[in-house]
Amino acid sequence: LLVDSRSFLEYNTSHIQQAINVCGSKLVKRRLQQGKVRVKDLLTQTCQIDIDDSWDIIVYDQCTEDPSYFTDDNFVYILLYKLTQVFTCVTFLKGGLLGLQAMYPSLIENKDTTGYKCTPLTSLSQPCMPVSNVGPTRILPFLYLGSQRDALSKEIAQINGITYVLNVSLTCPKPAYIQDAHFKRIPINDNYSERMVPFFKEAFQFLDMVRESNGCVLVHCLAGISRSPTLAIAYVMRHLKMMSEDAYRYVKDKRPTISPNFNFLGQLLDYEKKL
Question: How far is residue 222's CA from residue 149's CA, in Å, rounded to a whole number?
Fold first, then answer.
């Protein structure tokens, strides 16, 4: 059994084929340390099948060459320790995912090879990404996530009580029915070099203003799939004090169509370190 010890976001970006992810978060680490969850139960819940103690377990992280350097508070150290108490053969993959990828790239499952195919990395957008037609999704009591189509519909805004719009794009137009003072644009393209973190402060100030004024805001980009969900996830991290993977799941559960690109996923991990 291949066990990916990295975060859910890292696993979602790329992982070794057929590996399962145990979500290396602070919450899981604490539950393992305190004995609130058994490591075998953790694997069983993830696999959705019964696991025998005789199974060979192979654990990997991103790129560690020597696990002896792990401190006793490191998640992988705790995971390995708990596994060796249950399973007869537990092995750590030297060099991690990056080491294996360098030697056997065909064994790595990447997000961009399992979903849609887009234009080169210099592309300003993802034209092959279909525009979502699911309508706006309520993420927080005062915050909806949606697409340009949702933003331009005055009827949708009236039905959902939306009086503010946060536009995460360079090109999506401002809705005519929204006052200038109730509109904010974050000028971001959907590509693999754009930096969104520098805009978080002003975006969050706008969202906080909406919340404090008992308003309701629609956060949107073109499709409501990559840019605006990234911003919504980051705000959920800050507002609800969640780790990146927990915030990602929180938003994903409410709007399953979201799919932030690799660049934005990486920035969420970077932002997590600043919280």
Answer: 8
Are 91 and 156 members of one domain? no
Q: What is the pLDDT of residues 157-181, one digit of tens each?
A: 999 999 999 999 999 999 999 999 9
Asked if residue 84 belongs to a domain, the reply is yes
Question: Is 243 inside a domain boundary?
Answer: yes
Q: Do 85 and 52 share a structural domain?
A: yes
Q: What is the distance between the alpha carbons of residues 235 and 243, in angstroms, rounded to a whole number?
A: 11
Catalytically active residues, by annotation: 221
Answer whether 148's CB lies under 8 Å from 201's CB.
no
Q: Which residue did the predictor score with more confidence, 265 or 151?
A: 151
Contact (Cβ atoms closer than 8 angstroms) between residue 224 and residue 147:
yes
Strands 108-110 and 14-16: antiparallel
Which DSSP state fits 72?
T
Classified as helix, coil or strand, 164 is strand
The reported pTM is 0.62
Q: What is the Cα–Cα distance from 172 to 72, expressed in whole angstroms?
A: 50
Nearest to 150 by CA among 126, 166, 129, 171: 166
Q: Express each pLDDT in 85-125 by its tens digit.
A: 999 899 999 999 999 998 888 899 987 533 333 333 333 33
Q: Which residues pair with 183 in a beta bridge?
A: 165
Among residues 159, 155, 210, the alpha carbon closest in space to that of 181 is found at 210
